[in-house]
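[Q] Does anyone have a clean structure-token version of this?
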Amino acid sequence: MGSSVRKSRVMSDAIRLGIFGWPVAHSKSPQMHEAAARSLGIELRYERFEVPSSDLAEAVRQKHEAAIDGYNLTVPHKEAIMTLIDEVAPAARAIGAVNTVVRGDGRYVGHNTDAAGLVRSLEEAGVQLGNARIVVVGAGGAARAAVVGLGDAGAAEITVLSRRPEQSEALRQSLGEHVECNLESAPLSEAAGCFEAATLLVQATSATLESNPGALEFAASLPIDLLPTDAAVVDMVYEPLKTSVLALAEERGLTIVDGLGMLLHQGAIAFEMWTGFEPPLDVMRSALND
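[A] Here you go.
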């Protein structure tokens, strides 16, 4: 992927990238992308931009004026960025969230690599997605990507749970036409019945982040003990690697998938968009593990 013109350009000029988030100090994206670039002989710099929601518009404007080549978005900016860029790709528009922005011909175009990244990480872990009955906890940008990606991967049923029922219902209504499987929503307080029938639980909120003091309480509020013994649990958070939710699932002997695989695969897709080079997955994986 990528033209020879693009490749000759990246070999001679430094590529400037970064990630906007709040918080973002935990991000492992810089080490992953810079290691990949070194292995290919590309000069590339990837920075962390810790920016609160109130300052995002100005921070993005400044980076655009400086002609930054591209960037990622993480919590809580994946939806807000859509009004600050020149174009949103159709797939990202359908999801309603952007995590990757690419500069081309002076225009900034938003994409979503989270959906495909999650699916690839689960397939790599041997999780069966065809005809799966999936529970997604969360109703933000990460949850939206999970719903679309898993729906495209052949899930039979997806139920979205949120502490605020109106959020999960809004997600269901906005994504219903983009997902072929049965898509339902329910308040998190009514999770028991959903968990009993699930083959896969997806934790798609920031509640389990290491910086969140309520992570243990959040995990305890989920009826993980009701999941079938052959169910799998994935947490889209990767810091810590074994979140409070994954720890409880592991205690039950369930298959667990941490968020590092998703980070790897969504990052690999973005790397190819930015550079035109096939991403060196082994190098990127090693950098994340280090």
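[Q] Thanks! Anything notable?
[A] The first strand starts at residue 15 and ends at 21.
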